[in-house]
Each structure stands twice: as C-alpha cells, then as structure tokens.
C-alpha cells in the first residue's frame, strides 16, 4: 500500500548515509489521502447519519476498522514527513547551507522553503549565542590537514589560508577549520 511505501522510504533515508533524503514521494502521499477520503466516505454511507449505538454490531465493527485504517494512514504519512524534516535539520548541521544537487533535487518546494527558513532561524540563533554549532565538537588532532579536491571548485577565499584554487584532483595542505564545510559537502576529501 501507499502508506507502507512511505514508511519504507523513511527507513531507507535513515539507513542510506550517502543520500539521506530520497525523492519526495508525492504520489504515495496523494494515494494515502485518497484512501483516507474513500474510507471516510464509506463510513458516512455505513452510518447513514445514525448514532453509532443504533447500528448493528457488524456495522459498528466495520466503522471501527475503517477509523483505525484512517488513523494508521495518517500516522504513516506524518511519520514520513517528520522523518524528512528531521533529515533536513540534520543536513543543515552536517553539511551546511549549501546542499548537494542530488539532495536538493529530492526536495519538494515546501521542503526547500522549510530548509531556507530553518537556516535563517538556526543562523540567527548561532549569531545570538556567538558560537558556531556546526563546528566539530572536539578540536581537530591537527590544525592543518591535507585535502584533495573531488570536483572543480575554482578559487575560494578562506579565513586563514587565503585564496586557494581548488582544481579537481589537486592536493592542498590547509587549515582544517577553513575547509571542514567543503569536506562535509563532499567537494573535498581528507587525505589521511
């Protein structure tokens, strides 16, 4: 069923660290909503406007099963949406503001808006407390690290290392704090 597909998609997103946000499944969400509407319509027909106590036990049982199915479908849809919102919040902490195209393409328009608004609130909070919550919680072992560019990034300006030209495959010895966000975004890899 559509509700089961939503739960499986939420589970895949938790397990898949390479792509922590799968494609937005609008079709399954619409199918769940349509099924809920159909069940509700059936309930209205079965009850025919009568008080539930005046209906035969078999009809009461059918109404209860329909109601539980509606509640289950709503819970599955809400779990799917909540898992996506939490994934977006984690991505903001882990990767930063600039999401890879693979993830951004999997987002709905509302999720893009949510991510932007969350970033605004999160950034303002960090400014207010005067702390970068995206920084590593433990100090790096080495102040400078060796990194290799995985893609052409062009010239970037860093706080401590100055202007660096990051061509694909080029290796640089840079301050860890200057490039950690690029490593998190997948543009650079730490050469150990």
Overview of the structural elements:
This protein is an alpha+beta fold and 192 residues long. It is elongated. Helices cover 57% and strands 12% of the residues. The protein has a three-stranded antiparallel beta sheet, covered by helices on one side. A two-stranded antiparallel ribbon has the order 2-3. It has six helices and five strands. The mean pLDDT is 89. It has helices at residues 2-15, 26-47, 57-94, 101-104, 109-129, 176-185, and strands spanning 144-149, 154-158, 162-166, 171-175, 188-190.
Write the layout of secondary structure elements.
Blueprint: H1 2-15, H2 26-47, H3 57-94, H4 101-104, H5 109-129, E1 144-149, E2 154-158, E3 162-166, E4 171-175, H6 176-185, E5 188-190
Antiparallel strand pairs: 1-4, 1-5, 2-3
Helix pairs in contact: 1-2, 1-3, 2-3, 3-5
What is the gist of this entry?
The protein is α+β, with helices and mostly antiparallel strands and 192 residues long. It has six helices and five strands.
Query: What order do the helices and strands follow?
Result: HHHHHEEEEHE
Average pLDDT for all residues:
89
Note the total helix count. 6
Class from helix and strand fractions: alpha+beta
Radius of gyration: 24 Å
Which geometry do the CA atoms define? elongated
* Contiguous uncertain segments of 5+ residues: none
Spatial gap, N to C terminus: 47 Å
What portion of the residues fall into strands of 2 or more residues?
5-15%
The count of strands amounts to 5
């Amino acid at each position: 069923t559509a509700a089961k597909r939503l739960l499986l998609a939420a589970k895949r997103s938790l397990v898949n660290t390479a792509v922590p946000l799968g494609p937005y499944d609008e079709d399954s969400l619409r199918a769940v909503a349509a099924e809920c509407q159909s069940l509700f319509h059936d309930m209205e027909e079965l009850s025919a406007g009568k008080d539930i106590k005046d209906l035969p036990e078999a009809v009461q049982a059918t109404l209860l099963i329909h109601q539980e199915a509606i509640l289950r479908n709503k819970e599955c849809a809400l779990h799917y949406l909540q898992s996506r919102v939490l994934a977006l919040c984690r991505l903001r902490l882990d990767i930063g503001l600039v999401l890879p195209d693979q993830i951004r393409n999997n987002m709905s328009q509302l999720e893009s808006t949510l991510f932007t608004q969350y970033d605004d609130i999160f950034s303002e909070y960090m400014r207010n407390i005067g702390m970068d919550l995206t920084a590593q919680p433990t100090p790096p072992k080495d102040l400078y690290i060796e990194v290799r560019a995985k893609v052409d990034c062009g010239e970037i300006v860093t706080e401590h290392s100055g202007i660096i030209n990051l061509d694909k495959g080029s290796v640089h010895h840079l301050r860890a704090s200057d490039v950690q966000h690029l490593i998190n975004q997948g543009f650079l890899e730490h050469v150990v």
